[in-house]
Fold this sequence. Notes:
- The protein has helices spanning 4-18, 47-59.
- By secondary structure, the chain is mainly α.
- The radius of gyration is 16 Å and the shape is globular.
Amino acid sequence: xxxxxxxxxxxxxxxxxxxxxxxxxxxxxxxxxxxxxxxxxxxxxxxxxxxxxxxxxxxxx
Length: 61
């Protein structure tokens, strides 16, 4: 049986891989996909732009 510490490390690595690349983007005052002006907190103007950004990031890996 693996040690609990090793299992926890694997679980943490899996969770980190599941986080979309968009979460590491800093807010820039505009949508990262369509450049629509935004406040200084949000990264995307809506779910459709966030999803499109994720899909494009998958193809450009």
